[in-house]
Amino acid sequence: MKRKLIALxxxxxxxxxxxxxxxxxxxxxxxxxxxxxxxxxxQDTLDAEEFDIDDLVEACEENDYDDDxxxxxxxxxxxxxxxxxYNAMELDQFYASIKSAESSVSFFRTNDISKSxxxxxxxxxxxxxxxxxxxxxxxxxxxxxxxxxxxxxxxDDEELNExxxxxxxxxxxxxxxMYRDQDQVVLAVIVNDTDDxxxxxxxxxxxxxxxxx
Length: 213
Prior knowledge:
The structure is a single chain. The chain has 213 residues and is α+β, with helices and mostly antiparallel strands. It is 35% helix and 29% strand. The protein has helices at residues 2-8, 14-17, 35-44, 53-62, 67-71, 79-88, 131-148, 195-204, and strands at residues 22-27, 49-50, 73-78, 101-110, 120-128, 160-169, 172-181, 184-191. The protein has an 8-stranded mixed β-sheet, with helices on both faces. A hairpin with a 2-residue loop joins strand 7 and strand 8.
């Protein structure tokens, strides 16, 4: 994700990105997420328009975002499409391998990379093959966060279901979050504008990473 972060104008390196960040966690979400509910939220609350997955992958790979992305777009994908989106956004630098994913719905809002008021929001609800696979993904992602900075230390607790970090770096507010519920994990990466993730957290009654600022 280092290349993507530079393109977004967020930070210069992963070491800088996670130095001095804050973190938090919560427990027991209790069956709040389904792809259908998250998709409806993207459509009705965030007013996102459906986008062609191939066009989204191409835009991410080329860092070329037109006006459609400022209004917010979503894609609904199968196993193969989920991996394509995940790889195009280079999320594997913040999160674990997504090989056990079965499907996903993803929201993306951003402006052109040349803008001085750069912002970006990615919210991705990933459905795994079973609850155990979702737990493994969540735990493996926490290990990545732990390895990236000495300032992060999550307890190894199988009941941990929310985790998020915040960084103020080079004039940008950067957030990453995870929410685990049964066989699904919602991932979120946010730069500067937290309105979309705040709305998501209000809708599903989870904690927003913006509270860490």
